[in-house]
Amino acid sequence: MNISLTARLAETLSSINPGATERHNARAGVMDYFACLFPVLHGSVLDSGLDAIFRVFPAEHSLENLALQLGYLSHSLDFDDYHANFRGHPTTVVLSSLLALSTTRKAQSVEDFLDAYVVGVELAGRLGKAIGTRHYSAGFHSTATLGTLAATGAACRLLQLSNAETQVAIGLAATQASGLRSQFGSAAKPLHAGLAARSAVNSVQLAQAGFAGQSSGVLESFLQALGFGAGQPADLLHEWGSPWRIVSPGLEFKRYPTCGGTHSAAEAAFILREQLLANAKLSDVERIEVSFPPGADTAPNITAPRNGVEARFSLEYVIADALLNGSVALENYSEAPVDDVIAELAARVSRHPDPSAPADELDPDRRFHRVTLYLRNGSSLSHCVTRRETAAAPTDVEAKLRNSLAALPAAQAQTIFNDACLADSAALQRLIFLISQ
C-alpha cells in the first residue's frame, strides 16, 4: 500500500522525541523570541502598524488572533532568528502558534512545549529542503508559506492530535499558505508571520472540530506547485532528527536588526573601517563596491531606502552605517526617515554580482560579501566575509534579552528574564499569562 507523504509526516510528528540537547537549544530560541517581541510590545520601539493589528485582530476570546498578534510583534523588528535550511524565520511563527494555543492549557508542561517547538523547527528546515531552490527566488516569503505548515505541525504535536486529525490540519495549512517577498520593507512582512501563525491555529482547531479536508495528496501538491520543478519530497522525512535541525545547522540569532542578507557585508565594512581610519578618513572614500554571488541580494533589494524599515533591506545603507558608526544599531532602523549622512555615503555604494561564483539559490550557505573602498588617492581597501563566518560567530542571547527589557523597572525586567529561561512549567505559565493580557 502506498502511504501518502502527509500520512507519513503525521506519524513522524507524533512518534519522534527530542532530547536534552534539543531542549537546551530551544530554550535559547525562546529567549531570543522574547528579546525581539518585548521592545515592540512595551512601546520602547515604535511600530505604527501595531494599533491597526490590535483593532482589526482583537485577541480577546480569539486564540488565532493572539497568534497573529504575537507573530507580528516578534517579527516586527526583523531581529528574530533565521534558519539556513528554511531560508526564513521559523521561531516567530512556530512559537507564536504554540504560545497562543497554550493559553487554554493550564497543565501545559514545559517539556512538551519545548518538544513541540523543536519539532516545528525540524519541519521548517525540512520543508525548506523539500521545496527546493526555486521557491524563494520565485518571490515567495518562506516564513509565511513554509512557516504555516511548520507551525501547524508543531501545534499538532503540542495538542497530541490523532494522525487523521494531523493529516487534515497539514492539508488545511498547505492550502492557506501565502506570502510574497515584494512586501519586504513594509509592515506587511511581519504581518506574514502573524497570518501564518493564525492559519496554523485555525488549521488545528478545524481538524479537532471534525472539519473535513483532503488528507492525502495535498502536501505533495504543495511541494509540486510551489517548488517549480525543483522540489525534493524525499528530503521531508529522510533521517528525521539525525541530527535535529535545531542543533545542526541550528538557529541563527541575529546580532543586527537588519535582513540577514546584509550581515556579512556589515562585518566586512567593520573591518575596513578599522583599516581605513588607521591612515585616512571616511571623506577620502570616493566610491564603494560590494560583490556577492548572483542572486544573493534577492532579499536586501532596496537600493535607496526612504526610512529605517526599508533600510533593513538595503545593502547600501547597512554598509554605509557600518563604515560611519562601527555598528548597526536599532535606532537607525526605525520608522523615521533615513539618516542623511548615512544615505549620502550609501549613494556611493554600487552592487557587483560576481559571475565566477555559483548562483546563490543553488547554495545560500556559500554566500559571501566582498566590500571594496576606492579612495580618492587611487588606492583601495577590500575585505570579504562569508555567510558561514557570520553564522558561526556567537550571539549573546541573554544580553540581547536583557537589553530588550532595559526600559522596564529593574525588578520586573529580572522576573521576565528569569521566566524566559523556562526553568520549569510554572515559568512557562507566567510567560503565557504575560503575553495574553
Task: Give the SSE layout.
Blueprint (H helix, E strand, L loop, with lengths): L4 H11 L4 H22 L8 H7 L6 H13 L14 H13 L7 H22 L2 H4 L4 H18 L3 H14 L11 H21 L9 H10 L18 H5 L12 H17 L5 E8 L15 H4 L3 H11 L14 H7 L2 E5 L14 E8 L4 E7 H6 L4 H8 L5 H11 L4 H11 L2
Parallel strand pairs: 1-2
Antiparallel strand pairs: 1-3, 3-4
Helix pairs in contact: 1-9, 2-4, 2-6, 2-18, 4-5, 4-10, 5-6, 5-8, 5-10, 6-8, 8-9, 8-10, 9-10, 13-15, 15-16, 19-20
Question: Can you walk through the features of this model?
Answer:
The structure is a single chain. This protein folds into two domains: 290 residues, 2-methylcitrate dehydratase PrpD (Orthogonal Bundle); 133 residues, 60s Ribosomal Protein L30, Chain: A (2-Layer Sandwich). The chain has a four-stranded mixed β-sheet with strand order 2-1-3-4. With 437 residues, it is of the alpha+beta class. The chain contains 20 helices and four strands.
If strands are numbered along the chain, what order do they take across the biggest sheet?
2-1-3-4
- Classified in CATH, the superfamily of the largest domain is 2-methylcitrate dehydratase PrpD
CATH architecture level-2 label of the largest domain: Orthogonal Bundle
Order of helices and strands: HHHHHHHHHHHHHEHHHEEEHHHH
Q: What would you call the shape?
A: globular
Q: How widely separated are the two ends?
A: 50 Å
Stretches where pLDDT is under 50 for at least 5 consecutive residues are none
Structural class: alpha+beta
CATH fold assignment of the largest domain = 2-methylcitrate dehydratase PrpD
| Relative strand content | 5-15%
Q: How many separate domains make up the residues? A: 2
Strand runs, count: 4
